[in-house]
Design a protein that fits this description.
Radius of gyration: 19 Å
CATH architecture: 5 Propeller
Structural class: mainly beta
Low-confidence stretches: none
Shape: globular
CATH topology: Tachylectin-2, Chain A
Distance between the termini: 17 Å
Helix content: under 10%
Largest sheet: 5 strands, antiparallel
Number of domains: 1
Strand content: over 45%
CATH class: Mainly Beta
Amino acid sequence: MMRCVNNPLVTAKDVKSSRPDFRVEGIFNCGVCRYQDEILLVCRVSESAGFTDQKVNIPVMVPDGDRMTMDVIEVVKKEHPEWNFSDSRSITKETPSGRKIVYLTSFSHLRLARSKDGIRFTVDDAPMIPPAMKEESWGMEDPRVVKIEDTYYINYTAVSPLGPATALLSTKDFQQFKRHGIIFTPENKDVVIFPKKIGGSYYALNRPVSQEFGSPEMWISESPDLIHWGNHRHFCGVSGKSWENGRIGGGAVPFLTEKGWIEFYHAADSDNRYCIGAMLLDARHPEKILARTEKPVLQPETDYETSGFFGNAVFTCGCCQNGDTIMLYYGAADDKICRADITLEEIFHALNI
C-alpha cells in the first residue's frame, strides 16, 4: 500500500462551514465513485457549535412544522458532573437504572468533493442534501456510493436519539436525490451494498449491535430491490488478532476480480485503534470468505493518521479502480481525507492467494 505524497488531500480548512457560527472539525470517511469525467467523494463533514474547557454546545436538528431546523443545547461542565466528557466525539452519562444517555459533540452532514485527477479536490460550499428526517436529527455519517446500472445509490448512517440506523438515497446526476428511508434499523451501520445482483438477489454487509451481549461484527443480508432486506446471517466475527479484537465492519464497496470479490473492511482493537484489512469473497456466493488478511493493509502510522479529532484511526468508505491499481480513499483521525494506492497483485499477496 503506497500513501499518496499529497496526503492529506482534503482537510477542514478546505471546507466552508454550513453556517457562520459553526466550526468545521473534519471532513472524512467518504464514499467514492466516477461520474462523467470526475472522481466524486461523498464526504462526511463534521461541525461543532463550539466547546471549551467549561462547556460543550450540542448541535441537533429539531422538528419545525413539516421540516427540521438546527438547535444548540448548552451543557456547562461544572453544573453537570454526572456527564462523562472524556471522549471528544460525545458526552455520556448513565441513569440509576443503568441506561446510557449520549449526546454527540458534533453534527455531520454529507458534502461533495470533486476532482479531475483523483488528487486535487474542490469541496462544494453547501451540503449535498440537508437532513430531513427525525432519524437524522443528530446527523448523516459515513456514506458509501454504489453504482448499479445508471443509478448511484448512497447509503449512510442516520443518527438520532433512536440510535444509528442506515438510510438510502439515489441519484442519477448528483443534483436531484430520491430518499428511500431507513433500510436497516438501529443499531445497524457500516452497510456496504454489492454493485450488482448475485444469483437474483442484491447483497449487503452490515453490522447490527446487540446492547445485551455479543461483539460488533459483520452480517450479510439479501434483497430483491435494495429496500427490503432479509435472509440475515452472521458473516464474519472479530478474531484473536490484536488489531481486530474489538469490532469489525464493512468499509469500501466490494469490487469483482478474477478471483472473487475484494472487500476492504475496518477493524478496531480494544483501545479503539482503527485499521483496514481485506478479504476475498466467492464470486457467486459472497457469504463465503475465501481469504482474509492476517495483518492490516493500512494502519495508522503517519502524523496525520495518529493525531487529529480522534487519533489512531484509518477508516475507508470507498475505493476506485484504475486498471490494476486500486485507489483507496480513507478518513484519517476523523478529520481529514487521504488516499493510498494498492495493486491487485499486492492485495492477492496480502491475502496469500
